[in-house]
């Protein structure tokens, strides 16, 4: 149903990305020439066997990891050409992360956890807490502002993590196995939420997953094998 014709604006452009770890006899070629365009507002899933390069690929497009050759433009910016300092600022401004382990700070309430990226950016506490409250409403957690992570279910924790990922309105959300610590129906609800956010906020959402049960939520699925994207399935 959704295809390249619907998603006109390219959010991520990768051409022949190559990445090796180590050197000499211990050199591992993790990416052997990745080509892909990912569009604004689409939810793209990345699947493939263990060791095929998924984490390496999302680490590169989220500006966390350098690469050896090729071109990678994220939101129009050639990320191999910007300084370390500008990369950090770019990431803070434009990218939100969601991880399988939620990564919430245990001593902070839901609202405080969501406010963290704003406080890090230097936004004053009152405004950060107000924006955090709005993000919690967006993920359907309006009544859980003052709950600590230890008082929340897995699904609630992941929704807090998603609120934290979107609170600064990033253009890109990178999710690494977002449902693997959740039961089936909670995982489906989390994906429903990510899909809704991609459309309502026109945010590009990239999800690495081993969870076949959530593939229906993708606009497109990129299949990786042995350091390459071998094919892309339109849905
Ligand atoms: N820091 C590193 N040093 C050396 N080799 C690495 C490093 N990180 C990854 N690799 C190797 O690079 C290849 C790609 O790894 P990567 O973690 O990107 O795969 P993956 O598809 O995410 O795997 P999984 O599904 O198991 O998480 C693998 O052969 C892996 O062993």
TrEMBL record:
This is Putative ABC transport system ATP-binding protein. Keywords: ATP-binding, Nucleotide-binding, Transport. Residues 12-235 form the ABC transporter domain. CDD domains: ABC_MJ0796_LolCDE_FtsE (cd03255). The keyword Lyase does not apply. GO terms for molecular function: ATP binding; ATP hydrolysis activity; transmembrane transporter activity. GO terms for cellular component: membrane protein complex; plasma membrane. It holds the Pfam family ABC_tran. It comes from the Bacteria. Gene3D superfamilies: P-loop containing nucleotide triphosphate hydrolases. Belongs to the ABC transporter superfamily. Macrolide exporter (TC 3.A.1.122) family. The keyword 4Fe-4S does not apply.
């Amino acid at each position: 149903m959704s295809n390249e014709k619907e998603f006109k604006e390219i959010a991520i452009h990768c051409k022949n990305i190559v990445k090796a770890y180590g050197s000499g006899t211990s050199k591992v070629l993790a990416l052997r020439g990745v080509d892909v365009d990912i569009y604004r507002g689409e939810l793209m899933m990345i699947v493939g066997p263990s060791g095929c390069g998924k984490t390496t690929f999302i680490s590169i497009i989220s500006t966390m990891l350098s690469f050896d050759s090729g071109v990678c433009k994220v939101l129009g910016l050639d990320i191999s050409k910007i300084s370390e300092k500008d990369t950090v600022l770019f990431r803070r401004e434009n990218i939100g992360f969601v991880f399988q382990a939620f990564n919430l700070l245990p001593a902070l309430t839901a609202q405080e956890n969501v406010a963290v990226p704003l406080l890090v950016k230097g936004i004053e506490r009152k405004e950060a807490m107000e924006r955090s409250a709005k993000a919690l409403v967006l993920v359907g957690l309006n009544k859980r502002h003052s709950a600590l992570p230890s008082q929340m279910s897995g699904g609630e924790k992941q929704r807090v993590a998603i609120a934290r990922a979107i609170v600064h309105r990033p253009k890109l959300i990178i999710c690494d196995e977002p449902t693997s610590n959740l039961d089936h129906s909670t995982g489906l609800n989390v994906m429903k939420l990510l899909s809704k956010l991609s459309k309502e906020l026109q945010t590009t959402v990239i999800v690495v997953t081993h969870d076949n049960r959530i593939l229906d939520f993708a606009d497109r699925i990129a299949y990786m094998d042995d350091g390459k994207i071998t094919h892309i399935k339109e849905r």
